[in-house]
Structures are given as structure tokens and as C-alpha cells.
């Protein structure tokens, strides 16, 4: 795997982070596309820096959901996706990231409320997720996705709307994934389980304040590199 050239890394003041890919951590998850040398799996997202209270709520939710599906694994990092995972060729990384930087430069920080428990599957139904859906701040997220989609189109890559929401192109469900398991287990987690999980969120002390999130930056992960775009 080739390193990202210094010319790309120096375009950003933010510190780059190295992450070594360890297949043993994938826990049976299935790749959406085969790994090939020179192909960089890339996606754009907004990171959520969690507080201790959030981890307490997460523990309550995952522990309860495991009474319905014991194979659930809690997420270790939290974010709202602004793209699906796409494949970039190595020589596209520099112009792709530069284009993102230009399109996202004018966006201000904003708040979201993520307080609705929902069950999701990935496109090919190989994984099921429990997440917190965004119920306020949806419009700003749509605006961000619109700009990210324009970058995708420049590089002839799948856009977020068309790829994930055939039926309702203008209404994606933005969410923070909390836990996942292999396979399509929506049948076990929806209904009674989902109602009980929502009740845990609603009763959690100060949950309205805890789940009101201010977004500070947008990130792009390409291979093992992270690029950061601060919101104004």
C-alpha cells in the first residue's frame, strides 16, 4: 500500500493519524468490495466525540438489546455518515480531498438532536445496526451531503442519495450507529425491543441535553489516513 504523498498531508494543518488495518477486528463483517492494492476505501462523515454519560447510556442500551440478540457488539467510535464507502484510486486522493475542502469551507458549526432509536441494515443485509436517528438538524446534514455528492459526481463515484435511498431520494435517515451484529436481525430488534430501548433513552437522566450534539468538523477517511475539515 503506497503512502500518501507529503504534498497531500501538508495541505492540512490538522494532525494525520495512522491506523493499521487488523482483519481480526472485523468480527466476521463482509467487505462491500474486494480489497485491491492501489484501491483506497474512502468515506466522509462527522465524528462525535463522546462523553462519559453517553458511554453509560450506550452500555444500558447494548446490555438490554443483547437480551434479544446476544451477538451485538458496541461501536468503538461514533459518527454520522455523509457518504457511503467508495473506492478511490491512489492518485485521486489528493484532488478528491482538495475538492472536499473547497466545497465544505463555508459551512458553520451546527447542532443536531439524535434521540430516536432505530434499527438499520447495510445495503446487502450482511449487518444489522442499532442507531440513534437525528430528529433535528436534518436540513443542515442534507446540505452537507449535497456538497459531498457533488464531489462524488466529479469523480464518477456513487452518491449517498442514489446509492442508499432508492424510494425516497430526498429523505435519508441520518444516524449515529451504536452497536452492530452480523446478518439481518431486524426481526428480533424491531417492535418490543425497539420500544424498550427508546424508553431507556427517554428516561435517561438529562438525555435531551446529552443527545444535543454540536458538530465541529467533518472528516474523510481514505485507507488508513484521516483528513479533517473544521466547520466555522
Largest sheet: 5 strands, antiparallel
Order of helices and strands: HEHEEEHEEHHEHHHEEE
State the helix count.
Answer: 8
Strand content: 25-35%
Give the terminus-to-terminus CA distance: 34 Å
Structure notes:
By secondary structure, this protein is an alpha+beta fold. The chain has one domain: Cyclic phosphodiesterase (Cyclic Phosphodiesterase, Chain: A). It has eight helices and ten strands. Strands 1, 3, 4, 9 and 10 form a five-stranded antiparallel sheet that branches. The chain is globular and about 45 Å long. InterPro entries: Usb1. Keywords: Hydrolase, Lyase, Nuclease, Nucleus. This is U6 snRNA phosphodiesterase 1. It catalyses: a 3'-end uridylyl-adenosine-RNA = a 3'-end 2',3'-cyclophospho-uridine-RNA + adenosine; a 3'-end uridylyl-uridine-RNA = a 3'-end 2',3'-cyclophospho-uridine-RNA + uridine.
Amino acid at each position: 500500500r503506497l503512502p500518501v504523498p507529503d504534498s497531500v498531508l501538508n495541505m492540512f494543518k490538522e494532525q494525520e493519524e495512522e491506523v493499521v488495518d487488523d482483519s481480526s477486528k472485523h468480527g466476521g463483517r463482509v467487505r462491500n468490495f474486494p480489497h485491491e492494492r492501489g484501491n483506497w476505501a474512502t468515506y466522509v462523515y462527522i465524528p462525535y466525540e463522546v462523553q462519559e454519560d453517553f458511554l453509560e447510556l450506550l452500555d444500558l442500551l447494548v446490555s438490554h438489546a443483547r437480551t434479544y440478540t446476544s451477538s451485538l457488539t458496541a461501536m468503538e467510535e461514533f459518527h454520522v455518515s455523509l457518504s457511503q464507502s467508495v473506492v478511490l484510486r491512489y492518485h485521486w486522493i489528493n484532488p478528491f480531498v482538495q475538492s472536499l475542502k473547497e466545497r465544505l469551507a463555508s459551512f458553520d458549526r451546527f447542532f443536531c438532536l439524535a434521540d430516536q432509536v432505530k434499527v438499520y441494515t447495510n445495503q446487502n443485509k450482511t449487518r444489522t445496526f442499532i442507531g440513534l436517528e437525528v430528529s433535528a438538524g436534518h436540513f443542515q446534514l442534507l446540505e452537507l451531503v449535497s456538497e459531498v455528492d457533488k464531489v462524488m459526481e466529479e469523480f464518477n463515484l456513487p452518491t449517498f442519495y442514489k446509492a442508499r435511498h432508492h424510494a425516497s431520494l430526498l429523505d435519508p435517515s441520518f444516524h449515529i450507529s451504536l452497536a452492530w451484529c452480523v446478518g439481518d436481525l431486524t426481526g428480533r430488534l424491531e417492535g418490543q425491543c425497539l420500544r424498550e430501548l427508546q424508553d431507556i433513552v427517554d428516561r435517561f437522566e438529562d438525555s435531551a441535553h446529552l443527545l444535543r450534539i454540536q458538530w465541529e468538523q467533518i472528516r474523510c477517511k481514505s485507507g488508513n489516513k484521516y483528513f479533517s475539515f473544521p466547520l466555522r
